[in-house]
Amino acid sequence: MQARALYSVVSDGSITTPKGFRAGGLHCGLKKTTRYDLGAIVCEVPAAAAGVYTTNVFQAAPIKVTRESIESDGFLRAVIVNSGNANAVTGKQGEEDAYEMRSRFAESIGVSADQVAVASTGVIGENLKMDKVRSGIDALPAQLQSDRHASEGFCQAILTTDLVQKMVCVSVEIDGQTVHIAGAAKGSGMIHPNMATMLGFVTTDAAIGSDALQALLREATNYTFNMITVDGDTSTNDMLVAMASGLAGNSELTPEHEGWAAFSAGLRHVCEVLAKAIARDGEGATKLVEVQVHGAVSDDAANAIAKTVIGSSLVKSAVFGADANWGRIIAAVGRAGQPVNPDTVDVRIGDIVTLEQSRPVAFDEDAALEYLKGDTVVIRVDLHMDNGTATAWGCDLTYDYVRINAAYRT
Q1: What is the spatial distance between Cα 405 and Cα 54, in angstroms, rounded to a whole number?
Q2: Three-state SS across 97-161?
Q3: 160 is in an annotated binding site
Q4: Structural domains present in the chain
Q5: What positions are marked as the site Involved in the stabilization of negative charge on the oxyanion by the formation of the oxyanion hole (predicted)?
Q6: Tens-place pLDDT, residues 365-399
Q7: Residue 161 is assigned to a ligand binding site
Q8: I need a labelling partner for 218 at 20 to 30 A (CA). Which of 13, 29, 67, 358 fits?
Q9: How far out from the chain centre does Cα 387 lie?
């Protein structure tokens, strides 16, 4: 409760609510439909920047370009994103195309190339249709605005199999100034801890240095985006980029600043909302599943157990079928490779106790069925060993997941 009091949710906010940002999107022809497939976020001043990237060994060309841009001096003016094509595992040509996207967009908005980040998402192993990308880049600056409609255009442009756009904004009071933190993301399949098949973008008008922003972004990622799973796969293109314009008027944030905790809480909330939205929007999913682990020997142990339970195909299938099969939960706990006392574990599905001190508890099957039919399912595991805690998010495993991924390229 205390953390929530440090920030306020801006219900009508968007990624352009923080001062200095514009965004937009358009259809350039990379997708077969008329949905937008090219978008950008632009800052009117050099923005302190930070990034977190996929752990997959096969990293797409845009990852290399974006790393290079951020590491050049820690600042960005823009990020350009396409969907419909991942530009991954495309060799030398893929790198050249990513660099051309960077330089062409930089020229179109009048900034240097090393101030632009690039992101792509879509099918792996196919070259970009650069004639369409070039035309789209040339038309994109005219679409960049600072209103919510333009932000929604950007959100549409980054989607692949997503069913919904994902955007959130909060405000915090720092040095008597209102500071905004906003985020947008895409992600639906190939979602797994340690980044997911996601693209995430955070904007803020806080004054904060690149190193401090990087530290906070990585910390927030570890508690949010690194705690979601849909299908156990990690993609080639995942990245989370944050940009801070510094236009809110606060003094620069450091760990010693009295506003540090409030800003950190706000950033973590933005990341958590986006992470849970990705998990809820998992391909074919009908339910958001939350696994809470308490009483582990450490937070790291709790983290590993929560990830194992949320990633279990058997647990996910049971949730889809509204089957209160707690045996699948306890089996996942036991194979997580972490210390567990087999005599002291409690398991709850919602508020329904199914296991207490590792002994089955008679429970109302009909009540459990009704609870599991809901669109949010919370599983609580208490090991009664120490104070380690963690929370992970995922979704159920449905017939539609197979249908969607069996025909992804067609």
Answers
A1: 21
A2: HHHHHHHHHHHHHCCCHHHEEEEEECCCCCCCCHHHHHHHHHHHHHHCECCHHHHHHHHHHCCCC
A3: yes
A4: 4-280 (3.60.70.12), 288-406 (3.10.20.340)
A5: 121-122
A6: 999 999 999 999 999 999 999 999 999 998 888 76
A7: no
A8: 13
A9: 27
